Amino acid sequence: MARELGMNPKKFGGLANHDQERWKAPLPDFIARLYFKRFGKERPDEVLSIEDWLKRQKKKNEERKQRKAQELVESQQLPGGPESDPDAGTDDPF
């Protein structure tokens, strides 16, 4: 839930000081309350480990790179592009 909220796990030590400051809620309760407030549900639809989440992100980035490369190739093959001009490779100015 914290990952979906954009929280940094390295900062949890500063957030989890409910023993020192009694008015603060324990960190898991705080995160659950924020999650419900933002997304309107108690739990995420799909709970992933960090490793699985990273694998999914890497795969998603690779697919995006392939899609961009394919779009670039397709845009260069469209009519009106530099390859389609019959006079593009000639030295004759007329």
Write up what this structure looks like.
With 94 residues, the protein is an all-alpha fold. It has two domains: 1-46, no CATH class; 48-81. Helix content is 51%, strand content 0%. The chain contains four helices and no strands.
Total of DSSP H or I helical runs spanning 4+ residues = 4
What is the averaged pLDDT score?
78
The tally of beta strands, per DSSP, is 0
Return the domain count.
2
**Class inferred from helices and paired strands:** mainly alpha
Oligomeric composition of the shown chains: single chain
Q: State the distance separating the first and last CA atoms.
A: 67 Å
- The ordered string of helix (H) and strand (E) elements is HHHH
Specify Rg, calculated over alpha carbons: 26 Å
Low-pLDDT runs of 5+ residues are none
Largest sheet: none
What is the percentage of strand-forming residues?
Answer: under 5%
- Globally, the shape reads elongated
* DSSP helix fraction: 40-55%
Provide tags for this entry.
4 helices; 2 domains; mainly alpha; 94 residues; 51% helix
Briefly, what is this?
The chain has 94 residues and is mostly helical. Helix content is 51%, strand content 0%.
Strand and helix map with partners:
Elements: H1 2-5, H2 12-15, H3 27-39, H4 50-76
